[in-house]
Records
---
Amino acid sequence: ADIGTLTSATSITPDFAANQNFTVTLAHNAALENPSNVVAGQTGSIFVVQDGSGSRTMSYGTSWDFIGGTAPTLSTAAAAIDRIDYIVQDATNIQAIASLEYS
């Protein structure tokens, strides 16, 4: 599957009809909003890369469900790479897990 590029902004809304896998290089503190066009059973990954400055943060829309109910704190070093894997349970629930600090 292809990897679609998301544009860094303070609000990022992935279109799950466009891609399953995404990458975004954060140049802002961002909110990963609830995606559009979700389909139950869809799976994918979002690669989150810190820009050359690092220290960018990410918050999450209400559909994103993480283990234990706690959203991850992303790596903040310049050029750090984290990955969020997800599966869509239904129209308003996306189960996700983050793998942090890839080299």
---
Amino acid sequence: MITEEENNLLTQTGKGTPCGELMRRYWQPAALSEELAADKPLPVQLFGEELILFRDGDGKPALIGRYCAHQGVDMIYGRIEPDGIRCMYHGWLFDNCGKVVLRGDWLPEKERRWDVGQPAYPCVEAGGVIFTYMGPGAAPVLASYEFLTVAAENRAVTKIEVNCNYLQANEGNIDPLHLSFLHRNLQDSERDKQRLVPGSSATPNSLVRKDQTPVIEVDVAEFGLRIYTIRKPGDGRQYLRVTNYIYPNLAAFNGLTTGEGYSAHWHVPIDDHSHWKYAFIFSRVRPLSEEIRERIRVETTDGNHLKRSKENRYLQNRETMRSETFSGMGFHFHAQDAFATETQGPVQNRCEEHLVSSDKPIVASRKLLLKAIQDVRDGCEPPHLLREPSAAHEPRIIVLSEVIPADVNPREYVRSLEAKR
């Protein structure tokens, strides 16, 4: 249980809030690359700020305030021109730094930039996503996560709107115990049967069914937390899964490509009551099949909104709870996750929760996040920022799903894999 003040610190991300100031010091996803056409601005809301995203004359993304600095006209209707975006009302032209471009047809002097303008934030494009930096000073280097750097054919990304605070969704990613219940299939589906755990002839689903009360441990890492989940399937061995919490709003975990890659969710606040979940999946060794690409997009209405929602009770079918899935909410985990996090309310009241030993990752991640927030308040740099381009390496993120001998220490086993990288 935490205090109301701590809960507010962790969940309020608007401009000027302590957590908002922390979040803005990291690169954050602003849109999928495929969403932004060359000739049409895209409205974007991040951390409560209304913004407009467009491509400049070189095709590079730019992010500025949505409403014209002159008289507040909505720039979603603006004209895209080689030098920026022009307001339809009086023709004010804003460059990719949000400054007004004054031309000779306005003044007898040469073209120049006027200090009047919109808020503006730098952007970079990587891994099929447009990222922005909304913090003060020079932007850090965007971390070279594998899901951003592999070849385009080896990765897929989508985004889903989730109607709750970003934190409860990210905490769901690092809660291993709920796999024993919410995501459990009552029998292996055909898709389950295609995924055998290394070191065994069993599926992840069957191994989870055999031990629903795993041992859960956490280690603090340079990027956040490394989480170990150890289950005893009853054959004298142990089933080890390793997932990761990554500062400040990202998680990496097992998915359809575990063993040759992993899945990641990046939870980006729209405001304090809703957020975008950017879902990544990749393989180090081969192009992704169309089945995997479609898998991360299924059961959505327009690609970004789930068919199963709180309004339709997530289409829960109680008959299927007898023979198919524990939840009765289909086989797609995005909808199951939405149920678990959205029904906690727009912002979970953590002052009334009762945590237990299996909640170690959640407790630890909150402590790390509160410490990072305090670091920023104290004028210090938060953790897991890369300042030198030469240091733009992928953090040592290991995602694992393996059956290992009972006498092997899980931590030592992971450290041995880390040393081989």
---
Amino acid sequence: MSLLIVACNKISNNVFDTRISEGVIEYRVSFPELSDESITATLLPETMTYSFKDDEFASFFEAAGGVFKNKIIADRKNKRVDHELKVFRKQIKVLMNETDVLQMLADYPKMTIIKTSDTDSIAGFPCKKALVVFEEIDIPEIEVYYTQEINMDKPNWCTQYHEIDGVLMAYEIEEFGIRMRLEATSVESSQVAPDILEPNTEYQTISKEEMDVELSQLVETFEL
């Protein structure tokens, strides 16, 4: 009887949960530490797409007219992250399991997430605000907005924001040594094509250390 009650509760929750559980979020990308006139800024991505379904997501952006493409595919159920990078004809990727992800997170600057009572609306979704304060005083604090009106369980499990239980709608990351701010501009409820969430088998698998070298060289190319 108790098992039947639990099963019925799960079915009931799924039936009455009207939140989006599959779709695409588009983000506007800006660079707080670069001026609009910077040549580097003109070569960097202007948008990022985030496709999600159940326990999986894929974030993607490209720059320099498609010369550079960056994609991260995360599968929470199988605790796997694939980081794919394409620069000109070079196609490489890093595969990370749960241990690799935990090591990666440990290497991020130490920070404290302070949840607040402030709210806002971004891309039509109600969002809560959090402040991110770093132990290193030279790293500026970050304002983060997240929503719990999108049906994803632990969407940030493989990111530095893993303590936040909600989909990030405005936040900052550092990629390739460059600080980026992302803010959602639209959320579309739609079916995600299976290939978007599938790792590309044509990419050459390398180690994370080798990928770090590739990314360092890429940053040098952008620093004009």
